[in-house]
Amino acid sequence: MSAVLKAICGIMGEIGSIEKAGFNKFHQYKFVQASDVMHKLQPLLVKHGLIILQTEHSRSLIGNGEAMSIQYHFYLAHVEGEVWTTPLEQTGLATCVNSKGGFDDKAANKCATAAHKYMVINLFKIPTGEFDDADSQEDAKRHSAANDNEQSPRVVPVRVTETAPGELPAVFPVDPKHGLVGRAGDMLVVNQPHAIDLTKKPKSDAVDWVAWGSRLVAGINAAVTTDELSSWIKENQSALEKCEKAAPKVFKTITTRIAEAHVLLPIIGDFARARTKDDLNAAWEKKHANTIKSLETVPYDRLAASFEYHVNRVRESSNPTAA
Q1: CA spacing 20 to 30 A to 34: which of 42, 118, 127, 160?
Q2: Entry pTM
Q3: Contact at 8 Å (CB) between 113 and 137?
Q4: Distance separating alpha carbons of residues 212 and 12, to the nearest angstrom
């Protein structure tokens, strides 16, 4: 195993979960603070000799100039000399208009912080409370009834390539054109809708609904057409019915992701059919404006990444000689 992969695997095994200690008073949701992530991650990076380098790749203003989108490339290196030359990509988004209507000069820093936080959470598979474990008595005592209804920000899941038992899953960045994909070397790996196996918890006969639900959510978020979304649901319908009874919180999260996908896919379809920047602006600012304004953080981020991709697409198609 390469030194970088060994370090990633080692950190995944030691880092544990991170509590959502931050709270957004305006939108009323809890979130994982970037400082908490680095507090747990930094000592493990040093211990396992892993270095993460972050560089800005591109930036743009979206949403009629009210939000900033910056795409970053992340490179992994090991103290033994191994370097991953293929970057991991992550987009950071932040509003760039402050409360007084002026430009927020901290927007770029916020984008950098957000991109780094979500990249390492995805890379090391850090549990952050996406699902509540229905079988955990400790969890039930720790959370109040009010938290059952909280609307938490979600890390946009990346597609995980299927591997043989014992091998490290490949975790790679978002491709807003095709959905969420995995990249193995130079080969693009796209998982098709399929029935996800129900696995049991370690040393237990109980189904690990959290693990199963996480994989299904990754597939749902990767769907790029309503037909593909329907196929994911159909392939896993039997397990979904069992999940509703056995793990209602997991089931609620899954149905929320399905509902979001039904809202996003028609908009992303309009982006894909756009031939000019005016077409894209019309889709964002007119046809779907009310829907977009109502979106929560994560579906909005996914939509913004798709919009940015198609802006670049129509720009390149109108100027094919541009490098």
Answers
A1: 160
A2: 0.45
A3: no
A4: 18
Each residue's pLDDT tens digit, 169-222: 333 334 434 433 333 332 333 457 888 889 888 888 889 888 888 888 777 877
Q: Are 109 and 115 in contact (CB under 8 A)?
A: no
Which among 80, 112, 128 is the end of a domain?
A: 128
Cα torsion angle, 54, 58, 63, 64, sign: positive
Residue 277 is part of which domain span? 129-323
Which CATH number is 51's domain given? 3.30.390
What is the Cα–Cα distance from 216 to 210, expressed in whole angstroms?
Answer: 10
Strand 29-31, strand 67-78: pairing = unpaired
DSSP type of residue 303: H
- What are the DSSP calls for 71-95, one per residue? EEEEEEEETTS-B--SPEEEEEEEE
Candidates 269, 276, 266, 264; CA nearest to 303 is 264
Structure tokens at 4: 């970088």
Same domain? 162 vs 274 = yes
CA atoms within 13 A on the CB side of 2: 12
